[in-house]
């Protein structure tokens, strides 16, 4: 919201009852924030005050949260700190990625917004202040933190893969090559912790409490492919990742 003539935008906003933003993730200037008669409403993809900020869906998956949802809130001068007037709660399926869960929340959020906005404009809906002591921050995802740590347990690793899909993608360094991991699952076999094994024809990663199979990967500069297809193309059978990366 940085027009060439900010005053024109403010003048336009003075003519409306309410302005709506969706997953905006930035601070709106105070002069603009107070221009609409009923201010700004934000549809945020978390159950506030948990996961305020730019990446609430990914952070919920990454943290292993069992539930998430959407919140309708009145914007104030803080970052997702304003009072909430409607929420919707749902379980996070173990198969959901940031991309698929965001799409689901967007659909539900749009319906919630449509059902609640008029009551908000009329002033007939209750605003509930957030409890700041329960707040957590959902910082923007960065590529370095997308690196898949082979020292963690299976649930943590699988959540990691889902959280960084579709962007920037969980990744590993394997013999000097960056491999992105787009999909993985628990494997009913045992591979030594910290090892990547392809001897069975599948790409298997040994973790602290068991093994996962890398179902879909993407070698650097190449297309996505099934993990088994990639496994057939490497020249080794098993490598310790502490040496590989």
CATH topological fold name of the largest domain:
Rossmann fold
Please report the total strand number as a whole number: 13
CATH superfamily of the largest domain: Formyl transferase, N-terminal domain
The class by helix and strand makeup works out as: alpha+beta
Main sheet record: 7 strands, antiparallel
The general outline is: elongated
Computed over alpha carbons, the radius of gyration is: 22 Å
Overall mean pLDDT stands at 94
The overall number of domains is 2
Order of helices and strands: HEHEEHEEHEHEEEEEEHEH
CATH architecture of the largest domain: 3-Layer(aba) Sandwich
How far is the N terminus from the C terminus? Answer: 43 Å
Helical proportion, percent range: 25-40%
Strand content: 25-35%
Helix run count: 7
